């Protein structure tokens, strides 16, 4: 079983600053650690 620390975000194409990309990755990582249901993950990221 893989844990979040085993996974690495891959940013393929982005037209935003490095800082903004890092914030987006952190937000998504927090959502994935906190929730198991896609709907809840999406709701967290939208906030």
Automatic annotation (TrEMBL):
GO terms for biological process: intraciliary retrograde transport; motile cilium assembly. The keyword Transmembrane helix does not apply. It is found in: Cytoplasm, Cytoskeleton. GO terms for cellular component: cilium; cytoplasmic dynein complex; microtubule. InterPro entries: DLC_sf, Dynein_light_chain_typ-1/2. Pfam families: Dynein_light. Belongs to the dynein light chain family. Its main location: cytoplasm. The lineage of its organism: Eukaryota, Metazoa, Chordata, Craniata, Vertebrata. Residues 1-21 are annotated as: Disordered. SMART domains: Dynein_light (SM01375). This is Dynein light chain. It comes from Pterocles gutturalis. One of its GO terms (molecular function) is dynein intermediate chain binding. Keywords: Cytoplasm, Cytoskeleton, Dynein, Microtubule, Motor protein. It comes from the Eukaryota.
